[in-house]
Amino acid sequence: xxxxxxxxxxxxxxxxxxxxxxxxxxxxxxxxxxxxxxxxxxxxxxxx
Length: 48
Prior knowledge:
Blueprint: H1 2-6, H2 9-22, H3 25-47
């Protein structure tokens, strides 16, 4: 953790916020919707 001492407080806060963001349910819902949209687009493209 010696490297953490040299990082700015903003970088530490951003890193912790990013870690919290990926564990949030909203993150996974958005990711699932994005994946479903991509799958739907691929199915529509294959039909054409």
